[in-house]
Amino acid sequence: MTTAAPSIDIEEEISLLDLLIVLAKHKKLILGLPLLAAAVALVVSLQLPNIYTATTKILPPQQAQSSAAAMLGQLGGLAGAAGGALGIKSPNDLYVAMIKSRNVADRLIERFKLKTLYKQKTTTGTYKKLEGISTISSGKDGIISIEIVDKDPVLAANIANAYVEELYRLTQTMAVTEASQRRLFFEKQLKIAKNELATAEVALKQTQESSGVLSLGDQGKEMIQAVGTLRAEIAAKEVQLGAMRTFATEQNQEYILVQRELAGLRGQLAKLERGGEAGLVPTGKLPEAGLMNIRRLRDVKYYETLFELLSKQYELARVDEARDASMIQVLDKAVPPDVKSGPKRALIVIVTALATGFLAVILAFLKEANEKAKQNPEQAERMARFRKHLAWR
C-alpha cells in the first residue's frame, strides 16, 4: 500500500517527461509550422482590400397624442377609436421592415447601379449582396441604426443616407402612422357623408317644388337644428361603436360608456320629436306638407352637421400626417469613414498561428508514434489499427 503511491508518481513523472521530450525533439516542426502559416496568413491578409463601415442613426416618429385630441369633444371618441383600432403597436419594428423591403432595395439598386457595380448576373444575387453589406437594427432606446460595409467609404456613406431618403419617400405613399390611417378612415366617411348630403339637398328641393312650402317659422328651424345636431351626434357614436368592435369586447368599460352615451342621445332625440323639450311642436301635429318639408330639412341639417364634424377631423388628420412624415429625424448622418473596420489582419495572423500550432503538436506526436512503431511490433499493430479507423470508406 505504501509503495504503490510512489510508483504511480514516478510513472506520472516519467510520462510527463516523455511528453516534454517529444515536444523538444520536434521543436522545429512545432515552432516552424505555425511561423510559416502566420507568414502566409500575413501575406494573404495584406492582399485583402480595406473595408469601411458607414453608419447613420434615425429616430422614427413616435406614436404620441396628436392635435386631433382637441376635437374629440365635438365628435365623441370617434377619432380615438379610429386611431386605437388601426394604431401600430411596435412602430420601430415596422420602420425596420420598411427599410428592409424590396421596394427600397429596388430603388437603391437602380440608384447606385449595384448590379453592375457588384458584378451580379441576376437581380436576386444583387439583393443578397445588398443584404450582406447592410445591417439594420432597432435598439432599446428607440433609435434605428443603418450600417453599410463597403470597400469604398464614400459609397458606403451614400448608401446609408439613401436608405433614410427612401424610407422618407415610402412613408409619403403609405399609411404607416396613426395619423395617416386616421386620415384614410375619415376620408372614407367624409365621402359617404358628402354623397348623402347631396342626395338630401336634391330631395328637399323636390319636396319644396311639389308642396309649395319654401320656408318655416323660427320654431320649425329651431327644431330642425336641434334634431339634426342630435342625429349627427348619434351617427358619430354609432360609427365609433363600429370601430371599437374591431379591438374591444362588449365588456370593455369604454365600450359600455359609449353605449350609455348613445342611449342618452337617442332618448333626447325621442323627446324632441315628441315636442317634449323647449316647448317645440311635435312633428306629429304638423300638416302633412309641412311635415315632409321638415323631414327633408332635418335630413339636410343632419348631413351638414355630420359633414362639418368629419371635415374638421379629416383636416386635422392631414396636418398630423404631414407632421409625422417629416418627423423622421436623422440623429447621425453617415459620413465617409476615415478608419477601416476590416480586415482585422492581426487577428487573422494570431488565429492562424494558434490553429497551426495545435496541429503541429498533434503531428509531432503522430510522427513520434510512427517512429516507435517501427521498433515495437505491438506499437506497429496499434498504429495500423489507428490508421484503419482514420481511413474513409
Order of helices and strands: HHEHHHHHEEHHHHHEHH
Overall radius of gyration: 40 Å
State the share of residues found in helices, binned by percent: 55-70%
Beta-strand percentage range = 5-15%
Largest sheet: 4 strands, antiparallel
First-residue to last-residue Cα separation: 49 Å
What oligomeric state do these chains adopt?
single chain
Widest beta sheet: strand line-up: 2-3-1-4
Structural class: alpha+beta
Tally of distinct domains: 3
What is the average of the pLDDT values?
75
Write up this protein.
The chain folds into 3 domains: 14-48 and 343-390, no CATH class; 52-176, Bacterial polysaccharide co-polymerase-like (2-Layer Sandwich); 179-324, no CATH class. It is built from 14 helices and 4 strands. The chain has helices spanning 4-25, 27-47, 78-86, 91-99, 102-112, 114-117, 123-133, 153-173, 178-211, 218-244, 253-273, 288-325, 345-375, 377-390; strands at 52-59, 134-138, 144-150, 329-332. Helix 5 crosses helix 8 (153-173), helix 9 (178-211) packs antiparallel against helix 12 (288-325) and helix 13 (345-375) crosses helix 14.
